[in-house]
Design goal:
By secondary structure, this protein is mainly alpha-helical. It is built from 18 helices and no strands. Helix 1 packs parallel to helix 4, helix 9 packs parallel to helix 14 and helix 9 runs antiparallel to helix 17. The longest helix is centred in the middle third of the chain and has 32 residues.
């Protein structure tokens, strides 16, 4: 299966999974409205989806480095959909937390294997890898619209309909799995060549965490904060989340395009500098300009999104699955750990005060990127076929996790 067919299918599958990451945040206002949850309580739902996901993604990454697990693509997609579908039917807060956690585990299981396959299918092209990431961005962007159409018209009792994207995602995975049966030894060997640069990978991971806290903090509370900044717009919350997620599609494509001309580290540095000013605008600027700053923040946070994934894979070429699980997983998981802290501060003070510290984190990411080298590791030759996970395991002896 070549890039022209594999990448679009993987992108659709990525969208079908990442819609559930967006759904978790998009459901927050409905849990507040129907169940009278406070800021700290409702942020616990985001934490439930994020905590297990952040822990599980590196574990799944290590497993996919050692064993053939292509079946994780459809299975994890269905698992994440089932968790979201059952969350609105739970009769207690604890059971709701369980279903949100199930959703997070499904998301965690999907990303390491899909990121590795996408990297091989892309033939080392940053632009192709960015299109795979765009699928996730579209899923995020669609989440508030899906929730508004389903839950907004019938309440939380209609969450079983949220399983539909998972059914689509599992279906489009099947042609990719059939293509994975063909071997690609040359591509696999190239992907695993090189020496691991663990110090650079750790600094990159710290930058990913900074980005994650900013994005997840905004995604969790932006719909509520938008009504305070633009009180005259009834749908301000849904519109703000849609802009935050959809702007990521533009940012990912732009990042991949710029990386074809400039190196990935430099492009990421520029984007984080822009993000400092953009987040400040979101927090402190009222009125319609608020939406412009949300769009700029989204683009700034997503320009380095796919670039960070490929950088991590190049820093750890012998553990591509592990690198993918940490970089791609942490970008949407670790930030959830900070959400309860933001919620608690908001309960005691205000949302504006709680969100203000997010301005500093892109600056920290910029400083970390200034210490990173740009690796130059060829991946595959043009036109190489996508190897299977089984061929990946056969091409290199198993390593201890």
């Amino acid at each position: 299966m070549r890039r022209t067919s594999a990448i679009p299918l993987l992108s659709v599958g990525h969208a079908s999974v990442d819609v559930y990451q967006g759904i978790v945040a998009a459901l927050v206002p409905y849990f507040v409205a129907e169940r009278a949850y406070g800021y700290a309580t409702v942020s616990g739902l985001v934490l439930a989806a994020s905590l297990l996901s952040s822990v599980a993604q590196p574990v799944f990454g290590a497993l996919t480095d050692r064993f053939a697990m292509p079946w994780l693509l459809p299975a994890s997609t269905l698992l994440s959909g089932a968790g979201a579908a059952l969350s609105g039917l739970a009769g207690s807060y604890r059971l709701t937390l369980v279903f949100m956690a199930v959703c997070g585990v499904g998301v965690a299981a999907y990303h390491p294997e899909s990121a590795r396959v996408a990297r091989l299918a892309s033939d080392g092209s940053h632009r192709a890898m960015s299109w795979f990431s765009v699928g996730g961005n579209i899923g995020f962007a669609a989440a508030p619209l899906v929730v508004a159409a389903v839950v907004g018209t019938g309440g939380l009792r209609r969450t079983p309909l949220l399983l539909l994207p998972a059914l689509l995602g599992a279906a489009v995975c099947l042609p990719v799995l059939r293509g994975l049966r063909r071997t690609g030894t040359a591509a696999t060997a190239a992907a695993r060549s090189g020496t691991d640069d663990v110090p650079s990978f750790l600094r990159l991971s710290c930058a990913v965490v900074c980005r994650s806290i900013v994005f997840t903090g905004l995604a969790t509370f932006l719909s509520l904060y938008a009504h305070q900044r633009v009180p005259d717009v009834p749908a301000a919350g849904t519109a703000a989340l849609f802009v935050l997620y959809l702007g990521g599609a533009f940012g990912s494509v732009l990042g991949g395009t710029l990386a074809q001309r400039f190196d990935r580290v430099r492009v990421s540095q520029w984007s984080y500098l822009v993000t400092v000013a953009a987040v400040a605008g979101v927090v402190f600027v009222p009125g319609p300009a608020f939406f412009a700053f949300v769009a700029l923040t989204s683009a700034g946070l997503y320009i380095p999104f796919s670039l960070q994934v490929t950088l991590g894979q190049d820093y750890l070429p012998s553990r591509v699955g592990t690198a993918s699980g940490i970089t791609l997983g942490l970008t949407v998981s670790i930030g959830g750990l900070a959400s309860p802290v933001i919620g608690r501060v908001a309960d005691v003070t205000s949302l504006r005060t709680a969100l203000a510290p997010l301005v500093v984190l892109p600056a920290l990411a910029w400083l970390l990127f200034r210490t990173l080298p740009e690796p130059a590791l060829p991946l595959t030759s043009p036109g190489a076929e996508v190897p299977s996970a089984a061929s990946t395991a056969a091409a290199s002896p198993p390593r201890a996790a």
